[in-house]
Amino acid sequence: MTHNNYLCCQAISSKQPKIQFSVSKRGGQLLWLDGLKYFRNNENRTNLFWRCHWYYRRIRCPVLICMNKYDSSDFRQIHKHRHVKLSKKQQAMEVDTLELPNELPTPLPVINSKCDAALPVDTEQEMFTI
Ligand SMILES: [Zn+2]
């Protein structure tokens, strides 16, 4: 039985990322991934790109998330965060300050298809093209 438990824990801790989507006050789409916030960036035919919000600070974190448009669990991180403190507690707190339900992430298609056209283009976004 101990063996089973071990496997179970392994599965849980094997970096199953927590993904949430929300909308900023300015109407931009936000992605929360493991307690870090990302802004909607560019997209291409198959992928959405999310930019770490630390990019807009002095630190200029280079991280991008490349996410499959049709499967939000299919993504990869490009580059490494420059600011990550490995304090789980802090990350959790950051998420808690958001008014997000602590449930499973809502699937994103609804947000996406509706808002794309009307989405105001952030000036910051124009600085970055893929
Ligand atoms: Zn970052």
Tell me what you see in this structure:
- The chain has 130 residues and is of the alpha+beta class.
- Strand 2 and strand 3 (36-43) form a beta hairpin.
- Strands 1-2-3-4-5-6 form a six-stranded antiparallel β-sheet.
- It has a single domain, classed as N-terminal domain of TfIIb (Single Sheet).
- The protein has helices at 2-13, 88-96, 109-118, 123-126, and strands at 19-23, 29-33, 36-43, 47-52, 64-68, 71-78.
- It contains four helices and six strands, in the order αββββββααα.
- The structure holds zinc ion.
Describe the structure using short key phrases.
N-terminal domain of TfIIb, binds zinc ion, 6-stranded antiparallel sheet, 130 residues, 27% helix
Domain module count: 1
Label the overall shape: globular
**What's the level 1 CATH class?**
Mainly Beta
The neighbouring-strand order within the major sheet is: 1-2-3-4-5-6
Which second-level CATH architecture applies? Answer: Single Sheet
Q: Mind describing the biggest β-sheet? A: 6 strands, antiparallel
Strand content: 25-35%
Please write the string of helix (H) and strand (E) elements.
HEEEEEEHHH
The structure class reads alpha+beta
Average per-residue pLDDT, rounded, comes to: 73
Number of helices: 4
Task: Report the count of strand segments.
Answer: 6
Terminus-to-terminus distance: 50 Å
Please state the CA-atom Rg, rounded to the nearest Å. 16 Å
Low-confidence spans: pLDDT under 50, at least 5 residues?
A: 4-13, 96-101, 110-119
Pfam families: FLYWCH
Domain FLYWCH-type: 22-83
Keywords: Metal-binding, Zinc, Zinc-finger
GO molecular function: zinc ion binding
